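Exercise: predict the structure of this protein bound to zinc ion.
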Amino acid sequence: MKTFKPFFESKIAEEDKNIKATLKKLPARHSALVSGFKYNFQSGNTIQGDDLHVGYIDSKTIGLAGAWNFGREFVFLHEVAHKVWEKLVDEKLKKEWSALTKVLKSKESDEELFCMYYSQHYVETKLVKFDDKKLDNFIKDLPK
Ligand SMILES: [Zn+2]
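Solution:
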């Protein structure tokens, strides 16, 4: 796909701007968790070599595919949320969250649901799927 690459690379500067704009919307302690991270933007629907995921986060990189079902901002916020869950949500808050999510009767883990609701709270284009008010309030009231 040689002809596709230059086009994709020209999009990187634009994506960088988008990332910065989204990080500005987050509480300072949240955006600080990914400060200095590198971004791996991919053009496929899912992460290369991983059919099941549209994004990932490790100790220094956030990878984002060009997901079909979710906007890139949603996926980006989801990955940041994994860090927030790890670093800022203590055991007491995790228990509270777990109790609140019972109403969803979801098979997803507490952490995945947290990341979905976190994205939903901060994303520009909301998804109707994640519209529980109590869960949204939990996110709003997280330590800032
Ligand atoms: Zn996740």
